[in-house]
Amino acid sequence: MKYFAAVAAAGLSLMAPALAESAGAVAAARDWRADHGAEILAGFVDLLSLPNDANDAENIRRNADYITALFAERGFEMALLESDEAPPLIYGLRETPGAARTIAIYVHYDGQPTEPADWTHPPFEPRLYTRAMTEGGEEIAFPKRGEPVDEDWRIYARSASDDKAPIPALLATIDALDEAGIGFTSNIKLIFDGEEEAGSDYLDDYLRLHADKFADVDLWLFCDGPTHQSGRPQLVFGVRGVTGLDVTVYGPNRGLHSGHYGNWAPGPGWRLAQLLASMKDEKGRVLIKDFYKSSAPISKAERAAIAAMPDTDATLRETFGLAETEMDNAPLGERLLLPALNLKGLKSAEVGALSRNVIPPTATASIGLRLVKGNDPDAMLDLVEAHIEKQGFFIVREDPDAAMRAKHPLIAKVTRSGGYPAMRSNMDDARVAPLIAALKDAAGEDLILNPSLGGSLPLYMFESVSDAPIVILPIANYDNNQHSADENIRLGNLFYGVDAYAAVLTMAAE
Amino acid sequence: MKYFAAVAAAGLSLMAPALAESAGAVAAARDWRADHGAEILAGFVDLLSLPNDANDAENIRRNADYITALFAERGFEMALLESDEAPPLIYGLRETPGAARTIAIYVHYDGQPTEPADWTHPPFEPRLYTRAMTEGGEEIAFPKRGEPVDEDWRIYARSASDDKAPIPALLATIDALDEAGIGFTSNIKLIFDGEEEAGSDYLDDYLRLHADKFADVDLWLFCDGPTHQSGRPQLVFGVRGVTGLDVTVYGPNRGLHSGHYGNWAPGPGWRLAQLLASMKDEKGRVLIKDFYKSSAPISKAERAAIAAMPDTDATLRETFGLAETEMDNAPLGERLLLPALNLKGLKSAEVGALSRNVIPPTATASIGLRLVKGNDPDAMLDLVEAHIEKQGFFIVREDPDAAMRAKHPLIAKVTRSGGYPAMRSNMDDARVAPLIAALKDAAGEDLILNPSLGGSLPLYMFESVSDAPIVILPIANYDNNQHSADENIRLGNLFYGVDAYAAVLTMAAE
User: Fold this and answer.
1) How far apart are CA B72 and CA A153, in angstroms?
2) A337 to chain B nearest CA, in Å?
3) Dihedral of the CA atoms A376, A380, A385, A388 (nearest 10)?
4) What DSSP state is assigned to residue A398?
5) Do B441 and B483 have their domain in common?
6) Helix (H) / strand (E) containing B433
7) Domain span at residue A369?
8) Contact assignment for A256 to B406 by CB distance below 8 Å
9) Which of A148, A196, A129 is nearest to A480 (CA)?
10) Which of A390, A416, A442 marks a domain boundary?
11) Both A360 and A270 in a single domain?
12) Pick among A275, A282, A319, A342 to test the B interface (most B CBs inside 10 A)
């Protein structure tokens, strides 16, 4: 991967005498992992051998206890926070004398449920390969202490990338810095979630019940997810929110013979098509009044960051078989800073071989919204409903009865989904500037500053705890088979984590 | 049912001395069936006891032989026409000395396949009820010879209405007229189809192979189907044709994450909605260029006939839960004389509980066309395709490959269905005037002249055999459970057939 060449190049310059504090720490981390690669892998194998489905209470607790012990050995005051039947939240604190800043590091130690039949090897029996199985990698034995490791090697196991990888990386960083006598520059808090893949239902409770533990956080660091599609490391400042609705429109109260009643009885499919066509134009512009109005403007820093991101748009278009994308090929990075109206599904009677000569009683569209900073999920759904009403539809929550049908030629049943807002941190925030500077010591100039992922995570929750910026620092390789069989991590990516966390733990004061 | 009151009233006037020929014949038919009701039923029970699924070759032939014998006994020269593995076509001729006209009577003697488990009684064991089971009718024994019968009684059995009923009715008519010494006024040809419910695949072959037998037909009479929704008897002059197409439009070549790519990758559902919305406006007017152009104009006679038809539109709207119908509640009768563009189905990914956060790869619409006289099925599909192209779509017949996708932002796969044209006879044709006049003797002024059914039958086939008008004379009650379990016929309707056929067989010369 391209960034490792860049990292190597940066590594040479690190030997220069006038090292920044974090640059020295990164160099120490590199030395450490070069000497202790086999031991780092051995510890990771032990952790990966513990099954970690959030619904498997016994094994989840084994993970929590195991991780707690590892950080306790390294000077962290540890606690398992509990709430009802939820997996425990692992909390830890290592105070740094004189530090004026507290960084909270989020990792999740649970993993996606597994379907062992789909895996090449059992998901909780980690295996080492010379490279990706899909690229002809071959299985090899794990190295013995002192033997060298290769950055292209991959470990296959559930949660190898998502999201246990940050744990051995962070442990190695701490060991490296402690061994070299390099102190942290911040107080470090740990918050390791045990049910992220099961929806983090209790996270909000934990944050509220233990608000005192998190009120002093100055920077939230989310260690999860993959690096950029280009293969380059990234620091991400936001995620989109999400909500949605299903809309059903009505024709006759039963399927009618399309010969006996065709071009007399109104077809619900036409009504739905007309309604949908009124919502979005052919370029992809949403026509719903005020749909874009509440969106936070794109800042100068965000525009600059997008301009500096690798332009993979043309490649993605080719990969996905798209001659054009919305708004005349507007850049993906910019589009992700606007709310999206997605048509996730359509259904009315049947098509193809199953279709019958019928005027169907209903037609339904499933519409998803992705939200950006400033968009309130309920308010956005209100705008969509107002648009539907403006098109002449009477809105109901249940299927209409005869009296309603007699009164209203156009009826739309709207079923709202739940949802949550976006989160987007200010890229100009003085509290993130030292992080960006430090990370460049680990990642080199290849580091991408990404204003927002397109996808959604409920990071908005952390905005209510403190006003601290929230950033995501992913380390996993993009092709890690996250959520699928044969999940894996490339060792180069694991080791990038060691370097990156060394930069984080030693970043300069503001 | 209303028309039987009218018939009874007309019956009184039939006693007047200056009877038209057909009025006398109708009176004779009435007398006959009043005296021989129990025997007519007994004969019908024997016929209904023969299973008649078109795919059951052995039983189909038993039906054909049985029916052939009955008409042979009544002076018809009979023949079973054969073609490959198809059920035989029953052909018959009874010449009338001096007649200048030949009427061909079409009936089908096969029936829909049955699911005996859904029936109250086995479908080929006829039962008699005092009225419809659904109206509280009770089973009674079939009457003995000489015992009276009641017009509200119903016989339950497969094909009781669809379409064996015309056979005992026609036999009773012939017996009544022969007994009364009333001669026919036309040569009568019989053409009894044995595979109508299986698609009449071989009918075209039969007509072509035996063209000489049908070239001299002056009037085609189709004895099939139910009376009008109003319950009144009708004479029908046309049917709509049918064709259709499936249209699939494309988004990305795989389902994409709606967060990562939403409002960048174009969604196929929006494209389909925009395409469909361009085809039909909110009133129901089709916007495809020239869609209505080839349609035969509605004649003065047709307009008058529609105006005279019972206005059941408001009742149908209430029944079907429709506040309004297309084109500001334009009359159903008029709408059926225009081609229809029906949206039979829509499909893209999933909706409701099954929907996922995806930008689907495709969206498909199943579109049905109903055609009227003048509309060529292929030419109509060409118009739809031209419209799709005009909206910017590149039309393909198979899913597009990468090169096609790279070249064309908008791609539509069009899959055409088969189909056939409409048939509509000229209501002013001098050859049908005597039929209308004669039928009024049987049906009274309640007789509805219906320019066209909305549904489709391949009657266009008979237009190639001769230039004779083609009319449909249905007798079955509207609530006969045609094609379903517990199919039945009301005796009043069966006996209306006896009267109506008496009028047909004795109608005046042109």
Assistant:
1) 91
2) 10
3) 170
4) S
5) yes
6) helix B433-443
7) 241-295+338-416
8) no
9) A129
10) A416
11) yes
12) A342
Confidence check: pLDDT of A47 > 70: yes
Phi/psi zone of residue A327: left (φ > 0), alpha (ψ -120 to 50 degrees), beta?
A: left
Q: Tell me which chain A residues have a C-beta less than 8 angstroms from the C-beta of B264.
A: 325-326, 330, 332, 335-336, 454
Q: What is the pLDDT of residues A280-292, one digit of tens each?
A: 999 999 999 999 9
Judgement on whether residues B397 and B499 belong to the same structural domain of the protein: no
Whether the CB of A418 is below 8 Å from some CB of chain B: the reply is: no
Could you give the count of Cα atoms lying within 13 Å of B7 in the half-sphere of its Cβ?
23
**Mutation site, B276, B327, B343, B410, interface A, largest A CB count within 10 A:** B343
Instruction: State how beta strands B102-108 and B219-222 pair.
Output: parallel
DSSP alpha helices (H): ranges in A49-132?
57-72
Give one DSSP letter per residue of B49-95, joined into a string: TS--BTT-HHHHHHHHHHHHHHHHTTT-EEEEE--TTSPPEEEEEE-
Considering the domain architecture, whether residues A411 and A433 belong to the same structural domain is answered as no
Residue B196 sits in the same domain as residue B277: no
Q: What ipTM was reported for this prediction?
A: 0.88
What confidence tens digit (pLDDT) does each residue in A306-333 have? 999 999 999 999 999 999 999 999 999 9
Q: What is the pLDDT of residue A283?
A: 97
Residue whose token pair is 């004389």: B337
Q: Identify whether A318 is part of a domain.
A: no
Q: CATH number, domain at B109?
A: 3.40.630.10
In terms of domains, do B271 and B145 share one? no
Last residue of a domain, one of A416, A443, A472: A416
* Total domains in the fold of chain A: 2
Contact A471, A235 (CB under 8 A): yes
What are the residue ranges in chain B where pLDDT is below 50? 1-19
How many residues are given for chain B?
A: 510
Beta bridge mates, A358 = A257
Token pair 């009403």 is at which residue?
Answer: A389
CB atoms within 10 A of CB B350: 17
pLDDT at position B19:
43
Say if B68 falls within a structural domain.
yes
Tens of pLDDT along A371-387? Answer: 999 999 999 999 999 99
Q: CB B260 to CB A358 under 8 A?
A: no
Of A11, A135, A26, A37, the residue nearest A492 (C-alpha): A37
Q: How far apart are CA A189 and CA A197, in angstroms?
A: 22
Which residue out of A240, A263, A283 would a mutagenesis test of the B interface target, given it has the greatest number of B Cβ atoms within 10 Å?
A: A263
CA B88 from centroid of its chain's CA atoms: 22
Provide the pLDDT confidence category of residue A20 given band limits of 50, 70 and 90. low
Residues A401, A458, single domain; the answer is: no
DSSP 8-state class, residue B352: G
Cis peptide before A193 (omega within 30 of 0): no
Q: Is A392 part of any domain?
A: yes
Does one domain contain both A87 and A199? yes
Strand partners, A128: A140, A155
> Which of B319, B423, B442 has the alpha carbon at shortest distance from B371?
B423
Q: Determine, yes or no, domain membership for A207.
A: yes
Burial class of residue A330 in the structure, from the number of CB atoms within 10 Å of its CB (0-12 exposed, 13-18 middle, 19+ buried): middle
Q: Looking at residue A363, which CATH number applies to its domain?
A: 3.30.70.360
For B457, the token pair is 């039958």
